[in-house]
Design goal:
This protein has 331 residues and is mostly beta strands. It has two domains: 199 residues, Aromatic compound dioxygenase (Protocatechuate 3,4-Dioxygenase, subunit A), CATH 2.60.130.10; 98 residues, Immunoglobulin-like. Helices cover 11% and strands 36% of the residues. It has five helices and 18 strands. The strands form five sheets. Strands 5-2-7-8-9 form a five-stranded mixed beta sheet.
Length: 331
């Protein structure tokens, strides 16, 4: 399978690119929303693109050749019920460049290039509910406070759309220290002046900490996990054909045990994809009848580097091709 077809089949799922952090790193670095309050909904516009329609956007580093201060952005997606991490959900982000221009659009005050793709991308949460992006700190979009858009696809029938910004002092210190890049020493719009944040921003403020010549940021986002029970057509049809139980070990070293339920006679294939959307391993298991199986793949011959991968299970039964994905970590 080529990259384009793989990414289309992934749909709402894909490879989480961050490794799980050790407990002490999480406790010292992050300032989570301990109450796990539902993130406020905000407009997706004015310049969203359907990232799922372009396989190029499946990436961690969304900078391309854009200039600006490097920003390492981590987001953690949790369920409002119990504040538990939500793995295997897709997260899109997009924002303007240092000059306040969005890629992919040329309309009104946004005189961009419709063929450009920078500062847009999507990732899939790992076992901690985390995604990582590498980008540049956004500039000022006219009339708005500095902000980043995001969308969390909980299932094919529900997504949470919102925006986040940064604490005013830390943000303005960044602008002042890099005024030759951004053309300003401060953000002219305040939190209470911005239409998206004027009604409250407590759960939409990301941390911002300088580290040498770049910045690290973190935001915890709480979404309604109960919507997972209201899945879309894609999930319902696949569930009639195949199902996966907990894959083990995860993290894995070489061998992966895959407990699978086959509900219709199907030809089964396993595929392992890396963070760049490249197939690194495949294993055909042949035609299997209805029943429960524990199948194995051995990754040792591929000499995979440490990191996160997507295991895709493909079932073909003549009626169609059905796919399930899980994020796995190589230790």
């Amino acid at each position: 399978m080529n990259r384009k077809n793989f990414l289309k089949s992934v749909g709402l799922l894909g490879a989480g690119l961050s490794l799980p952090l050790r407990a002490n790193e999480r406790n010292s670095q992050f300032k989570p929303n301990e109450d796990c309050v539902l993130v406020p909904s905000e407009t997706a516009g004015p310049f969203p693109l359907d990232l799922g329609e372009n396989s190029f956007f499946f990436r961690q580093d969304i900078r391309e050749d854009e200039q600006g201060v490097k920003l390492n952005m981590k987001m953690r997606i949790v369920d409002t019920d119990g504040c538990t991490p939500m793995p295997n959900v897709r997260v899109n982000i997009w924002h303007c460049d240092k000059d306040g221009i969005y890629s992919g659009y040329n309309t009104g005050s946004n005189q961009g290039n419709t063929e450009e793709t920078h500062l847009r991308g999507y990732q899939i949460t790992d076992t901690n509910g985390d995604v990582d992006f590498v980008t540049v700190f956004p500039g000022i979009y006219p009339g708005r406070i500095c902000h980043i858009h995001f969308q969390v696809f909980v299932s094919s029938s529900y997504s949470a759309v919102s925006q986040f910004t940064f604490a005013v002092n830390e943000k303005n210190q960044l602008y002042a220290a890099n005024s030759e890049i951004y053309g300003t020493e401060n953000d002219p719009v305040g939190l209470t002046q911005d239409f998206s944040f004027a009604d409250g921003y407590e759960h939409q403020l990301a941390t911002l900490e300088k580290s040498n010549d770049e910045y690290n940021s973190f935001l915890q986002v709480a979404v309604d996990g109960s919507t997972l029970t209201n899945v879309g057509h894609q999930e319902r049809e696949t569930a009639k054909v195949i199902g996966l139980r907990d894959i083990y070990p995860n993290p894995f070293h070489n061998n992966i045990q895959i407990p699978i339920s086959i509900k219709q006679n199907s030809y089964i294939r396993f595929e392992l994809w890396n963070m760049n959307g490249q197939e690194v391993l495949s294993s055909d298991k042949g035609h299997l009848g209805i029943g429960d199986y524990t199948l194995e793949i051995n990754t040792a011959p591929s000499n995979l580097p440490v990191g996160n991968y997507v295991l895709q299970v493909v079932a073909n039964n003549g009626k169609g091709v059905y796919k399930l994905q899980r994020v796995l970590t190589k230790k």
